[in-house]
Amino acid sequence: RFAGRAGDRLTLAALEKDVGSLRLQQGRLDEAREHYARALALDQHLANPTFVGSVQGNLAILEQERGVFAAAQAHFERSLEKFRSAGARLFEGHVLGYLAGLRLEQGDAPGASTDYAGAVAILREVGDRRLEGLFLAGLGAAEAARDRLEAWRDAHEGAGTLRGEVGDPGLLLALELHRAAFDLARARAAAQR
Fold first, then answer.
1. How far apart are CA 4 and CA 37, in angstroms?
2. Which of 53, 77, 136, 186 has its CA 20 to 30 A from that of 84?
3. Distance between CA 163 and CA 65 in Å, rounded?
């Protein structure tokens, strides 16, 4: 009944995306994918690149959860393309940081470092201090995986400073996790000597 007018299509597409996100959070991945597909189908008539970028980003997270990394990367790249075409720098920074995390999860530490550094620069530019700190911590983890310990230290300290500014417990948890990754990398390097 909503599909007759453009405004109603936008509302319905947004609702499909929101229900998809809820299903994703519940771990009901197949249902989430169905809602996202309907949201994208409705948007074909509206051609809203920011909306499509958001849905593509959510599909990337869904595929990453499923362990289908090639599909996740393709969705992240489509999301980036849409956000860049719309000039949506904040969202571009978010997705670039999530793509970096995917690269790190796949063992591509150099690619992760590049993407994390890009995300940090964008988020610094637009003023998202919380995610800047989170992705700076990720940059540190990528640098530790590359045995670039001085670069890890710089990123870790920068993220710690931001954590103090924003007071985000999630950032503290990320810092502790990445510190553990750093300690593990150092222990492995010492064991190989």
1. 19
2. 136
3. 27
